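Title: Prediction job returns without error message
Component: structure pipeline
Severity: low
Priority: P3
Assignee: unassigned

Description:
Job completed but the reporter wants confirmation the result is attached to the right record. Sequence as submitted:
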Amino acid sequence: MPEVRDDMTIEIEFLGATGEVTGSCHLVTVGKQKILLDCGLIQGRAKDEARNRESFPFDPASIDVVVLSHAHIDHSGRLPLLVKAGFRGSIYTHRASRDLCRIMLKDSAFLNEKDVQWENRKRARKGLDLIEAMYTIEDAQIAMKQFKGLVYQQKKRILPNVTLCLNDAGHILGSSIVELWLEDEGQQRKLVFSGDLGRSGMPILEDPEMISDADLVIMESTYGDRLHRTWDETQKEISEVLSIATKGNGNILIPAFSVGRTQEILYLFAKYYKHWGLDRWQIFLDSPLAIEATRIFMNNSDLFDDDMQALLQENKQKSILPNLHISRTTNQSMALNRVHSGAIIIAGSGMCSGGRIKQHLKHNIWRSNCHVIISGFQARGTLGRKLVDGAKHITLWGESMQVAASVHTVGGLSAHADQTGLKNWYANFKNRPHIVLVHGEPKAQECLSDVLQKELNANVTIAKYRQKINLISDT
């Protein structure tokens, strides 16, 4: 066995998604080489999002490569900032994630520029200094030039002593479990990063791949303290909401993440179109980003599971959803404000923190016959989280509004593995490697840690910000 010297370095430092769900970012050092795993935006409360403007806790120019687990903004959203600050290396990710990032980073930049324009109008009236956008659409386009698209289950040497392999995480299109083989002065270690893990049996996508060996596992823990409803229970729950809403003669609002959740909802609507009586509704997809993302999904249909392939084959000569209307323009979106009943409106953002859903909430949330279906995780401080927590009033553009609508949290639609899914994925590692929990709120992480220790005798660490783990001496 090669001698272990004090100057050998295979180390990981946790720089994001520690004790919280957003802002994924982890720095791997192998000798003099540096690899960044994800570079995501922090989302939630205003004071949390303000941290996105802080300098990186490392020199961006010193990073050799970035490995991106998937396209969601809380994993990819600071990449334009990284490039703007001096990073010149390649960004390795699945080819579908690259395609999705092309539209998602552009959309993120557009929203940032728009928010800054709004803020600067207020600042100008108060005589305050104007602020700049974190990054622009041009910055996002420049960052895309450094993306390198890969495919699943093919090893690639990305640095002299670093080999990468991506595996299907089953979370969203192109989402990846990252395997890294790392070597320094004859010492070899294997690091596995779960990214965001999907669920077995999830619509459209294949189940997460199982990995059997590692020296260190970094695993998300978003739903480490709960179990999701079964798919059968979830389908029944949605059917019941639709039935109640039909009798009430109002609208249904579905705040949905543009990538992943929107496509799942459309798939379920197509699959259960007759059973759920959806012919009685007009369905509106009111999100330019979700429309583009759906196009990219269809261009990557080779990644779909057997059920989705069968549905496409069955409906290849006709529209899967005959009453689906695409609202691309602002005028088309605004026209929905005059529709008081019979509409199912799917719009972003998924946490109600921006996008067109806020306008639809403004025109519907105070109506007692309105129904809101919350279909995904809601970060602390977001408007969606307030609705989930039972807020009686919300504020939109400075105006307080009564929440008279019925709010339904359909947790079974989550694209994240629940406690059992996370436990079972880790249980497949034959050698029970040291596991570090990231991407979760404290309660979820503590609960999952207890389960992993008691049931699998795992050596568990809950990552803290700036914590370092040496893969040579600590594993």
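Comment from assignee: result matches the submitted record. The chain has a mean pLDDT of 93.
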